[in-house]
Amino acid sequence: MNSRRHRNAASNARSPFGELCHNRLVLRSGLHAPPAVVCRNLVKRYDQVVAVAGLDLEVASGICFGLLGPNGAGKTTTVEILEGLLAPDEGEVEVLGQRWGGNDRALRERLGIQLQETQLADKLTVEETVRLFRSFYRRGRTVDDVIGLVGLDSKRKSWVSKLSGGQKQRLSVACALVNRPELLFLDEPTTGLDPQSRRQLWSLLEGFRAEGGTILLTTHYMDEAETLCDRVAVVDKGKVIASGTPRDLVATLGADHVVEFSVGGEPPLPLVDFVRRLPVVRDVRLANGTVSLVASEVENAVRPILAEVERQRLHLSLLATHHATLEDVFVSLTGRHLRDD
Questions:
Q1: How wide is the angle at C-alpha 337 spanned by C-alphas 276 and 225, nearest 5°?
Q2: Pick from 125, 224, 310, 320: most CB atoms within 10 A?
């Protein structure tokens, strides 16, 4: 066990996740913890629509795993099958070593679930809502602890109907944490949160993971996936089309930088062909009049492009560069941006 784990074990008494930590650390100090989630050839159909089309997934214990994909990719359907809310038409699912249809009550005691849209009772207060969810479990946190964890102490007597969208989102996460889960399912947990609240929730989730908990989340935010996730899977049209660590997936682009430029309207083909022939350019894409390219060296890409734009007597209306990200990986894999419908 490394020094970081020793520090975690020593701080269990102080950690809000201490009880979970102790159990999980004992498990992880053995040879290998079994996967938290395994599904093979998962299929789910709605009439003629195939929402999940033979999806394979494995989530190791003790990590944060992210599912990335646009609306309609099959992420939420997949997560709801893993949570036991939907039955698959085909395929096998194991969650924490168990299959749904056995001792489901015992399995649910070990899970925390935050749905994409949680309909909470408007006329209950924050405290009453958390107390209600806590009553569903035989063991877990105190109501005060969980309200404090998500930063809603000042709103504990407020009706749910009076909360902002971000506060409601934090309340739904609180309800997912009341039972000290081993595995936490979060479907777009930071949607509607302001930047400060997002980072507070990130800190909470990092603490949960650091103490041995497992997180499976879906997100539209690439910075969130790159910050929180140990591994990610890109889902498109009901299948996993790429998976790995964020760094490894970015490395598949073959270069570190992305350059975007526009000359107003559709770029002429001679200019695009010139860009494709540059030695430092790996990939070139066109979208809405903007040329995007992946390059190993920014200067040796931008300089000749500017010279060629001038030579062709074109007007440069946009020029931007950035380090390659998961968003660029997604565009490379699917030809569209993550938040495109």
A1: 115
A2: 224
